[in-house]
Design a protein that fits this description.
Length: 480
Amino acid sequence: MDYEAVIGLEVHIELDTQTKIFCGCRNAFGAEPNTNVCPVCLGYPGSLPVMNREAVRKTVMAGLMCGCEIASYCKWDRKNYYYPDMPKNYQISQYDLPLCLGGGVPISGIGFSGEPLTERTIGLTRIHLEEDVAKSTHLGKFSGVDFNRAGVPLMEIVSDPDMHSADEAYAYLVALKQAMEYAGVSACDMEKGQMRCDVNISVRPVGETKLGTKIEIKNLNSFRAVHRSLLYEIERQVDELTEGGKLYQETRRWDDAAGITTVMRSKEHAHDYRYFPDPDLMPVEVSPEWLGEIRAVLPETPTARRARFVAAYGVTPYDAHVLILEKATADYFEAAAKGRQNPKLVANWVQTELLGALAKGGHTLADSPVSPEALGELVGLIEANTISGKIAKDVFAEMLATGKPAPAIVKEKGLQQVTDSGAIEGLVDAAIAANPKPVEEYKAGNPKAIQFLVGQVMKASRGKANPQMVVDLLRQRLDG
Ligand SMILES: [Zn+2]
């Protein structure tokens, strides 16, 4: 029997706000433990929460970016549970009236396994807003709790059970992260816990419409871990069913080192949390005026930007795909291409030379020694035939090392392209005189033999001769 996997993802993303969601404490990663705290986020009895409007605004922004419907009215609910990461014994969340409903995240391109993906949109069920809980660290017999994270605004983004392979889940995460970066709501750094992901996975015989037994996977610390855990779990579940076994609804823990999942606990149900509306907080109303204001400043979506790059700059759809993957790259490219006649050339430079060199030097675009304007200026010198593409690579290396602008380096080192035909003619004559064999071959009807002579002239000019002029002059001499 053939089986298909049905996968849904629950992604938590911390919002990049100045302060926490229900108090004035700073929302900052990496501070000394328990320094950004107050009675509200420590859960002292009698302290009262006050909603941070910016957290709601950013969640609406995220929802609009994914084409969600934004609720005009929603409320806060208490999710009751007992654990040291939340001393008031409930987390403020949203239960039956989330802020955003529906929408979706488009996926396309090549999957993580190297196979092309079917271009489609993964549906979203909802996005709701809640408070993050404290972070516990377990050291031997003891545990530490850091409340700096408690009360950080956290979006929970729930996808429909709409994905059918590990590759689709991976692509969804990449696209979702990209949308959030473009919306400017979070940096989504998984290492800092700003983006966390739980997986729901079941399998069923192909053709069956009822869902199989749902299993949740936790402890997934990278997109790669999500991909690997899904490959493992799909195989495990299919094997179990094929051998006549039974699956149980449970939560399993991914062990990244061993590459397996193990049972954590049998699955709790929503009613275990005894949700009820929080009496300390007013419901949230998103007025049409406010929604209009947010919509008016909504950034371009990654998909729209990709289409615009193809139309406006003439780059290929593939190049556009690569350029928009990270917002920083897309922004850099646009700044560098400003005023250039040949944006495709700029795209090539960004993708091949710049990104390669930065990765090699341990830099990111944010601390690139070459600014987009400086790279644009370098490409301008190629466009104007002041230097060849080959010389430009040397100039670029110098720019990276010294931070000097391209025109200064070209001038200082005398790298301007030689377009004076008199000077090139001298080199052409010398090359012809010194290399009788290729000359003979060319004259005997082998047009490729000219390449060797072009190379000799370029070498003699130290790469500075205009290559087209060299070819033209050689042809003139040899054909004449
Ligand atoms: Zn606080």
